Amino acid sequence: MGLYPSDWAQAPAHAHAYRARTSGFVGHVHLIEGFSQPANGSNTDDHIHFYSGVTSFENGHYHRYYGMTGPAILRKDGTHYHEIDGTTYFAYTESPSIHYGGIVYVSGGRKERHRHSYRGVTREVVGNEPLGW
């Protein structure tokens, strides 16, 4: 077994960069950006990628998100991209005051929580081995 195990019966593993902006809520939006998980696939098959992360920190909070891309979509130049869309996890509209690190459990009355939706496309392919490597 080599240093990087691959299924050579399929197209080489690759990943994509992605970036999207969330919907607005109470005057703020979040930026979502990162790299998808690697997947074997080509420009013309229906492969997908898993992605996850944490939004930008805005208005005193951030959101977690995860999802799977849509299938590969061929571009005119022969490369491909994927569509991403989803909804973030809930976060408090007003962040709880934290005096010490760790998990915060809010007692008593309920605090307002909210989510954001997002939609975008993946960007360049990253992680391919150079041709002839």
TrEMBL record:
This is YmaF family protein. It comes from the Bacteria.
